[in-house]
Amino acid sequence: MNRTLAIIKPDAVENHRSGAILAHLEREGFVVRAARLVRLSRAEAEAFYEVHRGRAFYPDLVEFMTSGPCLPLVLERDNAVAHYRAVIGATDPAEAAEGTIRKLFAESKGRNAVHGSDSDENATREIGFFFPEHELAGLWGQA
Ligand code: GDP
User: Fold this and answer.
1) What's the 76 CA to ligand 1 centre distance in angstroms?
2) For residue 55, what pLDDT is reported?
C-alpha cells in the first residue's frame, strides 16, 4: 500500500462534483485516509505550485486555485500514484481518455477538476503540505 495526494479543485467543488469524484475514487479501490476543505491563500498556492513558477500558465493557476475552497485528500491503495494518474486522465480534458475523472468532470486544461502527485517523492512532500504527520497518525490510531 502507498499514498498519493489528490485535490478536488475549486471548479469541481463549486460544481458540486466532490461527492461523485469521491465515489469514483472509492470504486477504484482508493481509501480516503485524510480530507480537509481549505481555501488556499495566494502564498500557499504559489508555494504548492512552486515548480511551475515562471511558466506562462502559473498566474492563472494560482488565481484559479485561490478562487474558492478545494478538497485535499490523502488516498491509499497499491501503486497509488500511478493508478491515480491513470484514473484522472490527461491534464487537458480534451485529451483525457473516456471514463477518466478529467474527461467526466473537468471544464478545461486550467479548470481540470483534480490534482494528483506525479511521483512517490512528490506525494510525500504534498501530503506534508496539507496534513502534518501527527494529525494523520491521530486519525487512524487507537481510539
Ligand atoms: P497535472 O500534473 O496533470 O496536473 O499537470 P501539470 O503538472 O503539467 O500542471 C499543473 C496544473 O497547471 C494543471 O493541472 C492545470 O491546472 C494547470 N495547467 C497546466 N497547463 C496549463 C495551461 O496550458 N493552461 C492553464 N490555464 N493551466 C494549465
Assistant:
1) 23
2) 98
